[in-house]
Amino acid sequence: MSAENATKTILIAEDSSVILNLTRKILELQKYKIVLAKNGGEVLKQLEANPIDCVLLDINIPVKDGMTCAREIRKHPDARIKQLPIIAITGNANNYTMEEFRNAGITDYLPKPLDFDALVRVVKQYIG
Q1: Are the beta carbons of 14 and 58 closer than 8 angstroms?
Q2: Which keywords are on file for this protein (predicted)?
C-alpha cells in the first residue's frame, strides 16, 4: 500500500460526547482513523503517543482550553507535532478573530453547530 492511501489519523479534542460521536462517525465513514481527547490535558499526551495527521480542537474544552493547547502544540520540540494542521471547532467564534486564532497557531476553524460537509471538506483540504 502506498503512503498516499495509508489511513490518516485525526485527533478529536472535544468534551461534548454528542458532537464527539457524530464527528467521529462522519470521519470514520471517510476512512479516517480517530483518536480522542476528552480535555485539553489529554491533547499533547495523545499527540505524543500516536502518529496524528490533523487535530480537531474544540476551543472550549476543560482543563486547558483550545487556544492554550494550540500554542503548546506550536511550541512542541517534536517537529512532526509542531507542524500539524489544527482545526478549531468553536461555538463562539465571534469571541476570537482569525488573527487571534492564527497567533495561537490555529490553521483553520469551523463554527458550531458543525456543518459536516464543511468538516469533511476542511479536513480533506489539509490531509487529503
Answers
A1: yes
A2: Phosphoprotein, Two-component regulatory system
The whole-number pLDDT of residue 93 equals 61
- Domain total of the chain: 1
CA atoms of 12 and 95, how far apart (whole Å): 21
Any domain includes 66: yes
Grid cell 461555538 is found at 91
- Which pLDDT score, from 0 to 100, does residue 1 have? 40
Q: How many CB atoms lie within 10 A of CB 31?
A: 9
Q: Model's pTM, two decimal places?
A: 0.92
Which residue range is the domain that position 15 belongs to?
7-127
H-type helices in the chain, by residue range? 17-29, 40-49, 66-74, 79-82, 98-104, 116-127
Preceding amide of 51 cis, omega within 30 = no
Nearest-angstrom CA–CA distance, 38 and 78: 22
* Residue recorded with cell 482513523: 33
Does a structural domain hold residue 1? no
Rounded CA separation 76/36 (Å): 19
Residues in the chain predicted with pLDDT less than 50, given as ranges, are 1-3
